[in-house]
């Protein structure tokens, strides 16, 4: 889902660059060190530069030439930065003009262990990986002999509590879409009278006409400002921006209000609790009365593309209670929040749920995709009902296994929680010193999954590049931080120093 969830304002960067000449940067935006000098890393030796190097406007002349060439055959209007991956390393992203930026956007939250990670490079060169790449099994029909072992030693090794099975997929949108299908099939099996009840002839024939009863009259309930993907089912649950949905046929599915919290949280406790209570009451009303009954509710632990919107653990516990009360499934979309970024391996672990979600979808930092589940009745009652040619990618599953092993070896989840606390404190100081520029600072205690609002967000992002930082936005005004799990306190210092310089330009 990485392209589906790309920063939608990033084309502002390219448009701005195309309308002005490449000029030398002011001296204050240059850094005194160069990207060629290696720095000491807590995790790997001689892996990444000391810090950013900014030589030209971004895109610079070489990049602009390459962008023009690419634009002849590929739409570049959403381009953020044309990247030279051979020269990117660790937490740093490079371009064709020799610019090297500290990357706290990380391919839209999709890079877990840094660019050109030596451990992943070793895994990629293994015979097992080569076998998966060049033979590319159609997993539903021809799974490899070791597929169970690969799943158990990798994807299922980090399965959320209570969920011991997985359906593998290609991307985050695909993961959510297939989770929706599982929910609909589960609900109709229940309505029909049980897992082993056969379809009627009327159901079989009407399904071919896209009519009831074979085509069910069911929905998925999502939340305003949510993002779950760009396929046809997921797009009907995506509510973050009109540009995602305009002109595309959509299902008549319900949406509830996601509570909009006020910050600082401790100053608005009563108001925030009231907002969450009202949101839960709306969810329950829609489940009971919406004219297309929901089979499931899907929710992000933190609404990422929609503006980095948070809710309390109590809200999510209430949501779990309501869905169980009414026999509706709860799907937690961990595509962006999963794999350690919030200081827990899965963000929903922060909620202390008495009962696990019914399904948890994943992608991005996992470098593969799919959904976890525990209830065996979420397997369809017939083969080929939940099926496609690839059903995921063994090579990507092997890569996730290597990522998991490295996260455990380096204790990166706890590391991210610690660095996130350090970074948040520094950002709190910036918010005090630059009133109005780091508004609604949020993500305290959530690892490095941090965001704030800026009144001139797009301009802020452009200026950040000039000071050596690649950063992203979401919603209307949010600046969102998505560092890699190997982001250290020294990187936080570089980031905060650059953000301070950006703030001084406003």
TrEMBL record:
GO terms for biological process: gamma-aminobutyric acid catabolic process. The keyword Transferase applies. Keywords: Aminotransferase, Pyridoxal phosphate, Transferase. It catalyses: 4-aminobutanoate + 2-oxoglutarate = succinate semialdehyde + L-glutamate. It is an enzyme of class 2 (transferase). Transmembrane segments: none annotated. Pfam families: Aminotran_3 (PF00202). It comes from Chaetomium thermophilum (strain DSM 1495 / CBS 144.50 / IMI 039719) (Thermochaetoides thermophila). Belongs to the class-III pyridoxal-phosphate-dependent aminotransferase family. GO terms for molecular function: 4-aminobutyrate:2-oxoglutarate transaminase activity; pyridoxal phosphate binding. Its EC number is 2.6.1.19. Gene3D superfamilies: Aspartate Aminotransferase, domain 1, Type I PLP-dependent aspartate aminotransferase-like (Major domain). InterPro entries: 4NH2But_aminotransferase_euk, Aminotrans_3, Aminotrans_3_PPA_site, PyrdxlP-dep_Trfase, PyrdxlP-dep_Trfase_major, PyrdxlP-dep_Trfase_small. GO terms for cellular component: mitochondrion. This is 4-aminobutyrate aminotransferase. PROSITE patterns: AA_TRANSFER_CLASS_3. Its cofactor is pyridoxal 5'-phosphate.
